[in-house]
Amino acid sequence: MQSAYEIKKAICEVGHKLYDKGFVAANDGNISVKVNDNEFYCTPTGVSKGDLTPDMIIRIDGNGKKIEGKLNPSSEIKMHLRVYKERPDVGAVVHAHPPVATAFTVAGVELDQYILPEAVLTIGNVPTCEYGTPSTMEIPDSLMPYIQKHDAFLLKNHGALTVGVDLKKALFVMEEVEFNAKICKYARELGGVEEIPCEQLEKLMELRKKMQIPGRHPGCKTCKNLGTENCRCKDNTAKATHTCTCHSNDGANADLVAEITRRVLAALK
Fold first, then answer.
1. How many CB atoms are located within 10 Å of the residue 204 CB?
2. pLDDT value of residue 263
3. Which residues form the catalytic set?
């Protein structure tokens, strides 16, 4: 078990990495680590993550009240505490402003295309949460539709939030989000994005199970071209009944889409 000093030092190291990578500027971002169900270490407000030292790290309770430390906790600790409340499996939370991923939220572009095997294995698609005013409960509330199925979240016009079983995992997820966003951006600029076909996504989901990768995952999505000549899924048929086995259908909506597709294909024939 890590000592208090080791936890504080690890938080500082992650802060330095975020700053060096350009994921935060000035006093942006915040980091926290769970000690137990009612105690957490977190970064202070008003301090650059590039300048963090262990003596600056604060210990707070589950209500955000300071237990130990000279400085004050980040005003955005509310979203960290909401995550810990809703996700007992989470041991650390990282909030930063990775430029490319954040640009996706500003442009209103979803980061939902499956293009890199590593990103598929670790994060899947990354949802964009509704815009919320910083330091209020609006941002924690915006996480609620996605909190149980994702470990990475884009915050509309406000950056990204990632979680993990430990601090290293939370940082790695943040890095994966930004790297995946960069590749997606470059591919768009080069002419378009070719997503990994459904049958390959299924294989990756099976691999994820075998590797026992910790954390939550949304699963892979249903092929957009399902039942058409453009579908690259295995067992593609005109009946449009095939879907990825790792992704649950949306009940009546899936049946409706399948029926409409069947009728359109029948008409074309």
1. 19
2. 56
3. 76
| Phi, psi (rounded to 5 degrees) for 95 | -120, 130
3-state SS string for 133-198:
CCCCCHHHHHHCCCCCCCCEEEECCCEEEEEECCHHHHHHHHHHHHHHHHHHHHHHHHCCCCCCCH
Q: Are residues 94 and 134 in the same domain?
A: yes
Residues 227 and 130 both lie in one domain:
no
Helix (H, G, I), strand (E, B) or coil at 199: helix
- Distance, CA of 4 to CA of 54 (rounded, Å): 9
- Helix (H) and strand (E) counts in the chain: 8, 8
Between CA 110 and CA 234 the distance in angstroms is 26
Block means of pLDDT (10 residues each) for the chain, 269 residues, are: 95 98 97 97 97 98 96 94 98 98 97 94 95 93 97 97 98 98 97 90 92 92 55 44 39 46 51
Show the domain range for 15.
4-190
- Residues 102, 160 contacting (CB under 8 angstroms): yes
Residue 230 is predicted with a pLDDT of 55
- Please indicate, yes or no, whether residues 101 and 152 belong to a single structural domain of this protein: yes
Please tell me whether residues 262 and 150 are part of one structural domain: no
The answer to whether residues 119 and 31 belong to one domain is yes
Q: What pLDDT is recorded for position 80?
A: 98
Structure tokens at 241: 């009944």
State whether 84 and 151 are in the same domain: yes
Which of 38, 77, 37 lies closest to 57 in space, CA to CA?
77
Q: Is the Cβ–Cβ distance between 177 and 101 less than 8 Å?
A: yes
